[in-house]
Specification:
The complex is a heterodimer of chains A (366) and B (126). Chain A is an alpha+beta fold and 366 residues long. Chain A contains eight helices and 19 strands. In chain A, a hairpin with a 5-residue loop joins strand 15 and strand 16. In chain A, helix 2 packs across helix 7. Chain B is an alpha+beta fold and 126 residues long. In chain B, the strands form two sheets. In chain B, strands 1-2-3-9-8-5 form a six-stranded antiparallel β-sheet. In chain B, strand 2 and strand 3 form a beta hairpin. Classes of the chains: A alpha+beta (366), B alpha+beta (126). The interface between A and B is medium-sized, with 16 and 14 residues.
Chain lengths: 366, 126
């Protein structure tokens, strides 16, 4: 039985097409992915992302547990700050990528991918030999992402908190749409300015909140947006998607997450394997690429070859870039082909499409 | 969604209209265009190509996904909808009208009898 979010009937009324995503019945699109995508790039759009998992870690050794299971250095966090991080297996493969929220001293929230919630919870629990309690509160929390250049103007109508003062990757707790203690987080997956709002489902009339946001954003042309637009938006920014671009079979160093892999951190799961991988040199790298031919769209799973038709890698994500009108993708290639501008070839059915390695983001934002 | 009664349908979500003069028009159903989402372009075989029933005659690329097109009946392609080159969204907007894809000179009109009626098709997509 698929889970439904409190916005399920709203999605149906709005004409959404629903799919199974991470065990949830979620909107993949309403009217048109293009329309939703453009609303976020140009104005504002709202996504129901209540399927994301929320864990709470509390206790005198909460930080120690987080330091042990994640690859970034959570000791640099302060209350109100958020860190992008990942969890690895002993062999360096990725368990999941996640956000770490420092709520207060000795109290953290971890936000994980919906499809990994159970796996992640088990994994952390297994490694919790610390004086810290771990609670899975995914079913209690609902999450709306409001993204786009006019997201602040939209949301400010509904909150006393000065939203423009909330820096990226920080959050404040405050009033929203008549409710108190809502987590207002300056984060997102679209590359645009925006917020993710965390609600405790039991305390809040969520369909009303959805309506209030739609009303507030009406003058800016707000659109409800589905997972389809979420995917085309994130790909244009080169953000990795777990299950596609990063998996248990890829490590963060080759997966463009070297910047958050803090190998000098004291001890964490995967440290030895990753240190060794770095010393011996990476064999392959995740790259972005642009296909020259407008009629050749790369798709996940297509082979990547060199000019001699030798297989050098594979596509992990690909689509038409709605913003640019070109065809873009990401994939793993042998290290010697990872330099920007290198010519590679995507095997699309019976043709070879020439592509160039392009360092993301594909869509440049200031 | 709309499934005109005067068309025949395939399990692969194509429709075919018997034009009564030995030719037939082929396109993608309303259900299929809706499942695919925004269509970015279509690649179709050229005029003159001989197709067997169920042979691939093209590919339709949407933003998120790609799908092959299968001939509902055997025959030779007599016309390709050139308008789709510049306006592939016609398939989304008007799948049974301006979004038509190819016309076929049927080699065996009785093949159409094996295809589904609108009611049968509605049952399989329900």
């Amino acid at each position: 039985m698929l889970k439904r979010t409190p916005f399920y009937s709203i999605h149906l009324q709005a004409g959404a097409k629903l799919i199974d995503f991470g065990g949830f019945e979620m909107p993949v699109q309403y009217e048109s992915i293009k329309k939703e995508h453009n609303a976020v790039r140009e104005h504002v759009g709202m996504f129901d992302v209540s399927h994301m998992g929320e864990f709470f870690v509390e206790g005198p050794e909460a930080l120690d547990l987080i330091q042990y299971i994640t690859i970034n250095d959570a000791s640099t966090l302060k209350p109100g700050k958020i860190q992008y991080s990942a969890m690895c297996y002993e062999n360096g493969g990725i368990v999941d990528d996640l956000l770490v929220y420092m709520l207060e001293e000795n109290r953290y929230m971890l936000v994980v991918n919906a499809s990994n919630t159970e796996k992640d919870f088990k994994w952390i629990q297994e490694h919790n030999s610390f004086d810290a309690t771990l609670k899975n509160r995914s079913d209690e929390y609902c999450l709306l992402a409001v993204q786009g250049p006019e997201s602040i103007k939209t949301l400010q109508k509904l909150s006393d908190v000065n939203l423009s003062e909330i820096e990226p990757y920080t959050f404040k707790t405050g009033s929203f749409a008549g409710y108190d203690d809502i987590i207002l987080s300056a984060t997102g997956y679209s590359g645009e300015k925006g917020f993710e709002l965390y609600f405790r489902a039991a305390d809040v009339d969520l369909p009303i909140v959805w309506e209030r946001i739609m009303e507030a954003g009406a003058e800016f042309g707000i659109e409800p947006c589905g997972l389809g637009a979420r995917d085309t938006l994130r790909l244009e920014m080169g953000f990795a998607l777990y299950g596609n671009d990063i998996t248990k079979d890829t490590n963060p160093l080759e997966g463009r997450l070297g910047w958050l892999t803090k190998l000098n951190k004291e001890s964490f799961i995967g440290k030895e394997a990753l240190t060794k991988a770095k010393e011996t040199g990476l064999k392959r790298k995740l790259v972005g690429f642009t296909v020259d031919d407008s009629r050749s769209i790369p798709r996940s799973g297509y082979a990547i070859t060199n000019e001699n038709n030798e297989e050098i890698g594979y596509v992990t994500s690909g689509s038409r870039s709605i913003t640019l009108g070109t065809n873009i993708g990401m994939g793993y290639v042998a290290k010697e082909y990872a330099g920007e501008g290198t010519k590679i070839y995507i095997q699309i059915r019976n043709k070879q499409a020439e592509a160039r390695v392009t360092n993301p983001p594909f869509v440049k934002k200031d | 969604m709309n499934y005109p009664d005067d068309l025949k349908y395939t399990r692969e979500h194509e429709w075919i209209r018997d034009n009564g003069d030995g030719t037939a028009t082929v396109g993608l159903t309303d259900f299929a265009q809706s499942e695919l989402g925004d269509i970015v372009f279509v690649e179709l075989e050229d005029t003159g190509t001989a197709l067997d029933q169920e042979q691939v005659f093209g590919t339709v690329e949407a933003v998120k996904t790609v799908s092959e097109l299968f001939a509902p009946a055997s025959g030779e392609i007599t016309e390709v909808n050139e308008q789709l080159e510049d306006e592939p969204e016609l398939i989304n907007d008007d799948p049974y009208g301006e979004g038509w894809m190819i016309k076929l000179k049927l080699s065996d009109p009785s093949e159409l009898d094996n295809l589904m009626s609108a009611d049968d098709y509605k049952d399989i997509i329900a």
